[in-house]
Amino acid sequence: MKNTSYHGEYVTSNRILYTPSEFARENLLYLQEIGQVHARRPHISTHPGLASYLFMMVLSGSGTLSYLGEEYRLSGGDCALINCKNEYYHKSSEDLWTIRWIHFYGPTVFGIYQKYMERGGQIRFRPADMDGFTDCWEKISFLASSDDHIRDMKINEQLSSLLCLVMAESWHPESSAGGKGRQSLLHIREYIRDHLSEKITLDMLSERFYMNKYYLTRLFRREYGMTINDYLLQIRISHAKELLRFSKLSVEEVGESCGITPLYYFSRIFKQVEGISPRDYRKKWQ
Asked: What share of the chain is helix, strand, coil (3-state, %, to 5)?
């Protein structure tokens, strides 16, 4: 890890750039960066396209978070959680803010974030009590600077605690249950899971669920942090892996069951996603 302090024209910051172990990258929620910044002048920070999730908390002052084309006003006591793969930036207002942040990732974080959004989780939320979030941030910061030989496990524990707090504080069943758009998304995801072997297109989903395809595209990405095509591919590959491991279907039949044909195309797509051919994947698990 690298602990750096910076005193510049626009910000005063202190951050730890953390390098997790290979074990942590493959198995745990792991830290990438943690820090605190105090704005000295209004400024913009943006880093889209990262394989990372960002949790931020505003200690004082105010600013704006722009995420997937939406503007969120943040002030002291507010928090936010976003997928940094998507377009975003944040900027301090004239009321110069002090913020703390954590960049993190892991093999399970996408599913957790997806569940968070399904339950009505908000990009911006205001906890009733910041103490728990502050405690997690301080413990992770301490662990990242320590020589503890199991610090990756302890950081995973604290990140899990942080996500539990986020899930609890941002539970909005009225947002999840209400609204035709979000309900339609749940039905669309269910339809995709039940019709993997069939041809599924954005135009077909738009027509079937009576939604403008451009609105559907934007809403799906805002809610789940990915496009419909990315989601469809993810579900199909996951189903293919299950069939390769636990069924006696041929590789070609597996591809057909997942809606990816012909065989050469299925093999190519599977290898692009998993880094290994379907046949080699099956052999690995036999």
From this structure: 45, 25, 30
Nearest-angstrom CA–CA distance, 117 and 69: 17
Burial of residue 73 (CB within 10 Å: 0-12, 13-18, 19+) is: exposed
pLDDT tens digits, the chain, 286 residues: what are they?
555 554 456 668 789 999 999 999 999 999 999 999 988 787 777 776 788 999 999 999 999 999 887 889 999 999 999 999 888 889 998 889 999 999 999 999 988 988 887 777 889 999 988 999 999 999 999 999 999 999 999 999 999 999 999 988 765 544 443 455 667 888 898 899 899 999 999 999 988 888 888 888 888 887 787 889 999 999 999 999 999 998 999 999 999 999 999 999 999 999 999 999 999 999 988 7
